[in-house]
Amino acid sequence: MSNLPKIAWIGLGIMGSPMSENLIKAGYQVTGFTLEQDKLDRLAAAGGTAAASIAEAVKDADVVITMVPASPQVEAISYGPDGILENARSGALLIDMSSITPQTSVDLAKAAKDKGIRVLDAPVSGGEAGAIEAVLSIMVGGEQADFDAAKPILEALGKTIVLCGPHGSGQTVKAANQLIVAVNIQACAEAVVFLEKSGVDLTAALDVLNGGLAGSTVLTRKKDNFLNRDFKPGFRIDLHHKDMGIVTDAARNVGAALPVGAVVAQLVAALRAQGDGGLDHSALLRAVERLSGAQV
After folding, report:
1. According to the lineage, what is the superkingdom (predicted)?
2. What is the distance between the alpha carbons of residues 247 and 127, in angstroms, rounded to a whole number?
3. Would you call 122 helix, strand, or coil by DSSP?
4. DSSP helix/strand/coil, 48
5. CB-count exposure of residue 97 (10 Å: 0-12, 13-18, 19+)
6. Helix (H, G, I), strand (E, B) or coil at 278
7. How far is 266 from 189, CA to CA, in rounded Å?
8. Which of 103, 104, 197, 274 lies deepest, with the highest CB count within 10 Å?
9. CA distance 274 to 268
10. Three-state DSSP class for 293?
């Protein structure tokens, strides 16, 4: 029997499934719960254990990890008689890796403390590819001792793992990350349309741009999406729309102006309103094409 902590994993979506599988590969015993049976079947096929409820998943866990879309889902799985806080054992560590509002994380940590449960907010960046390759950037908020306890687990999921401050700090840094990513994708999308309309070899242009100061992880990861118009979701527009709402609201609360971010937030919202919310966020290219007169 392994002496590694037993892990409960709640939320097996685009990110959660490969992340939980990486923990199984690292030797952890993972019991998972999600709403989709096919995702539970995938976990079981990878060597994990499928649970029939949150309560069943978390009851014997040393560590509970959650990866769900937004604050309402985090609250739904955490609170109430069937939720994590009522069913996890005292002394367990709850690591929420969802991208939610900083205040939701602060409130969760306070509520969990009353139950003897420790909490870290630990949102990630790197998308589906980063999750599969276990090279995510993980931004953590919480206590140093809890971070130290969680770090071996997080090292099976990511490459850059940093404690950013007290509860909610990980979410604040993730909000800044999503701001940078959205603005970067928008700039790349505009460059792609400009280059194509100018008759330039797009593959060659993106290669040379990525070798200079204009290069970025975004361009490296999304170049093929742009070239092939392949917008299979790695990170959906719907979720980036949610994240842009988080960062613009948080910035307003602290008095920070986000003039470019506000424009890109509206462009993301417009793309979603046009029915593209289920596409990858590289589909911001479609919005630029429409603005430039293309029928998309």
Report:
1. Bacteria
2. 18
3. coil
4. coil
5. buried
6. coil
7. 15
8. 104
9. 10
10. coil
**d(Cα 245, Cα 279) in Å, to the nearest integer?**
18
Amino acid residing at 165: G
**Token match 């001792």: residue?**
145
Q: Is residue 111 classed exposed, middle or buried when 0-12, 13-18 and 19+ CB atoms within 10 A define those classes? A: middle
Instruction: Name the band, by pLDDT with cuts 50, 70 and 90, for residue 1.
Output: low
Assigned token pair, 234: 């790695």
CA angle at residue 80 from 74 to 84, to 5 degrees?
55
Amino acid 234: pLDDT: 87
Tokens 């019991």 locate to 31
Phi-psi region of 166 (alpha: psi -120 to 50; beta: other; left: phi over 0): beta
* Residue reference for tokens 């909490």: 119
Strand-pairing partners, residue 63, are: 7, 93
Give the pLDDT confidence of 140-185 residue by residue, as tens digits.
999 999 999 999 999 999 999 999 999 999 999 999 999 999 999 9
Exactly one of 39, 151, 174, 242 is catalytic; which is it?
174
The C-alpha atoms of residue 31 and residue 153 are separated, in whole angstroms, by: 15
- First and final C-alpha spacing in the chain: 56
Distance CA 129, CA 217 (A): 12
Q: State the Cα–Cα distance between residues 253 and 245, nearest whole angstrom.
A: 12
DSSP H helical segments within 27-168, as ranges?
Answer: 37-45, 54-58, 71-78, 84-87, 102-113, 127-133, 144-154
